Amino acid sequence: MAAVTGEQHEIRAGDYRAVVTELGAGLRALWRGDRLLTLAYEEDEFPEGALGQTLCPWPNRVDRGKYAWQGEQRQLDITEPERDCAIHGLVRWHAWTLESRRDDEVVMTHRLLAQPGYPHVLDLRLTYSLDAAEGLTVKLCAKNVGSRQAPFGYGAHPYLHLEAVVDECELTVPGSTRMLTDDRGIPRSTESVEGTDYDLRGGKSLAGLRIDHAFGDLDRDGDGRATVRYTGQEGHSVELWVDGTFPFIEVFTGDTLSPRLCRQGIGIEPMTCPPNAFVSGEELISLGSSQSTTHTWGIR
After folding, report:
1. Fewer CB near the terminus (10 Å): N or C of the chain?
2. Residue 247 has pLDDT above 90, yes or no
3. Is pTM beyond 0.90 here?
4. In this record, what's one Pfam family (predicted)?
């Protein structure tokens, strides 16, 4: 009998262990020793709330699924009907192919063929690798193998997890601005976090704080990385870092998830473009025929 999420690919290095699924090349779980570092689900369980999913050729939402590209009006399938949006791209429910696997690394590939509203062909290659000291590194390479210029964005949807609920933890996010959205999750403006409850740059308790926003203008280290830190009361912490190709990190406190998952972990979503980028064009990547783009992030 096939599991709901297809074949399971387990990798290990030192105390770290991860499982990647055939369905969407998703990150089903990440451990260090016996501690879960991400919210997990069973192999025969539906990944609620986009748990660990791969989001491309766009992350987050496209307003009413409508956008214009090079003078052509397009309509994507509406995949979030309650908000009348197309959400989280086209590949998270597709089967991906195992290209290679060793003890500490798995490589998954997928050819995205033309679909309603997205008449392009992309070759996607996603590498998950573990290191005993550095934890998990994820690298996505996308190449336009079609003949038409293609709009592109990439995101991922892990939920960081500690042995505590969100309200007992502290979050540090190196973003000096956040996007304000309407009740459908579509950005309407951007504001500085200075002086607001959403200034998480120095670390802040999440008790009673509801967040579902994209943070931008990220502070970075000398290597161009921006790092989010999630810390529990006992001092245990888990970090998610992004390279310089990610200008935005979405933070989601999980308030709309089922009671089993609600505020049990925090969604920290690397995004190469903000929500509704297919409409706004903000930070949207334009891939010409035979052009490729690469993006890297990780958890430790």
Report:
1. N
2. yes
3. yes
4. Aldose_epim
